[in-house]
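Cast an eye over my tokenised protein here and flag anything odd:

===
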Amino acid sequence: MSSYFIIVVLLFIFSSAKGESLVIGSPQIIRAAPHDDVILPCHLDPPFNVEGLTVEWSKPDLKPDPSDRLSRVEYVHLYRDRREVTDMKLPSYVSRTSLFTDDLKHGNISLKISNVTVADTGRYRCFIPKLQSRVKESVVQL
């Protein structure tokens, strides 16, 4: 049994007793071939409606553009105010990412990436900043 799995189970048991939902991503590496569509799984357990919350998907290994004085993070996908926010999105992901918006009410924050490229390889972070929980994020490897 992997240590990641044991940690997730222990966090789930402890947090469930307190009524918190945890952000859970896949512990498995997600594989895709170029031009495939892929889903990066991420959800809340127990399920919790996140339609009114911000959901951020980013690549934590990317550093902000040094020419950006404000050191802003660009997102793979950003959902805020019940809609996708495209002006803070990495250009290579524009028109290629989506959430399952009908399933947000059930805690599904999985990200679909269309037309995968080799440059998409890496770690992805799903994060709900205002979730009332100690586990607000998870990392999924593509």
